[in-house]
Amino acid sequence: MRTIDHWIGGKPTASTTHRVGPVYDPATGRQQAEVALADASDVDLAVRAASEAFVSWSQTSLSKRTGILFAFRELVRARTDELAELITSEHGKVLADARGEVQRGLEVVEFACGIPQLLKGEFSDQVSTGIDSFSFRQPLGVVAGITPFNFPVMVPMWMNPIAIACGNTFVLKPSERVPSASVLLAELWAEAGLPDGVFNVVNGDKVAVDALLGHPDVAAVSFVGSTPIARYVHERATQAGKRVQALGGAKNHAVVLPDADIDFAADHLTAAAFGSAGQRCMAISAAVAVGDAADRLVETLRAKAAAVQVGPGADSTSEMGPVITQQSKDRIIGYVTSAEGQGATLVADGRTIQADALKDGYFVGPTVIDHVTAEMDVYRNEVFGPVLVVLRAETLDEAIALINANPYGNGTSVFTGSGEAARRFQREVHVGMIGINVPIPVPMAYYSFGGWKDSLFGDTHVHGPEGVRFYTRAKVVTSRWPHSETGGGASYSFPTAN
Ligand code: NAD
């Protein structure tokens, strides 16, 4: 069995212990590799490599850092297909979707190539007679990234290109279900000329996460994953005095108003609910149909869900692949069954996939459930599978109130022909990322990505300008260069400008 090791200090590194976990191909249900699971001593090795590398990397000129970022960008671009194939084989999503994920990650690298501009400080001339003030930002030190299974390339790349461009060194703990892409990214960083120890990968589970959260030499932690673990990481890391941003789960609503183009809305909702088998933190999992939009919307969704091509991600005719594990499949089917038991109406039922070729993989078909209410388990929990529930509201106000009562606040969208309704929606919902006739409003790399409420713990969103702020801290310098003959004049009262 192939073993996927760590990447520490610029080279593949085996664990000091022999704990391993299985890596499956979700399309077939077969184990394809085992991944090393780090313990505290492996994590310490990686943090020490990163600490040593920080000494010179933090002093490396902006133009040298930028040169490496440009080279990394070219290498990732050239190896996109290979990265996409790794994603598909371990995650299951279709290849076109995997290529899209690499592209969105690359956009963060491109943003980070502009780091000389992004790190510019401010300068105020003559704040007092003969005195100038200026600010600049410096890196934090060793920073850690802990990432989920659903975006093996994009989510780590929300973090490491910006952290590294800012002069930090990085320890990535990817999801143990999809470890290979991170190791390939480490190879590409090395090929781009990044010095050993600046980017490290420790594979592992809770043991590795806890070791990072407790390590005194880790200055900051970026986490993306489910809400209970995000809350835990935020609490533990802040208690340990670290800077932390922890992005959690989601329940993303799309409101469909009666004046919307129903066919357009249903088309986009189907893609947003079932793309990547619903395993996106920005997937639409709840449609809120307002007034007489409901019956028309549900009938259109029924037809569109039935037309989705389900199959292995590597098959170019597939539009939707499997979910990540057998446990995920069982959990998703459990929520569908509970909704049926609690009085909802199944419009499209993906619990059984008939095709023989798919029977060993973790496939769940596109599922649409109507007449769901806010009390049902399928609505109250993040299902994270290809399940779209439909709730009905009388008015836009009622739809907004429903969204605002939900504990999550990652993404949401509204489908309407009315600018006035859209503007009211964008101003009144308590959600971080909003789409107007756009179902998955993932911000471009030069904006920052982040939700509200239980979808993000911490103060800063990821990538974009807030990413640069997260990975640096500010200094303000007040300077005077007196003539040697001037001297004296010191005052014992608090300094004020003159
Ligand atoms: P997860 O929370 O199970 O795992 C995320 C990371 O935490 C992994 O690296 C994992 O090894 C580690 N981990 C798991 N259990 C842990 C524990 N008990 N203690 C310490 N560390 C632990 O999430 P997942 O299943 O890999 O990913 C899916 C989740 O991520 C969904 O909830 C999804 O909404 C969320 N997500 C959110 C965003 C966002 O931007 N808000 C983006 C992608 C995914």
TrEMBL record:
Residues 1-23 are annotated as: Disordered. Keywords: NAD, Oxidoreductase. Pfam families: Aldedh. It comes from the Bacteria. Its EC number is 1.2.1.27. NCBIfam families: MMSDH. This is methylmalonate-semialdehyde dehydrogenase (CoA acylating). Residues 20-477 form the Aldehyde dehydrogenase domain. Signal peptide: none annotated. It comes from Pseudonocardia alaniniphila.
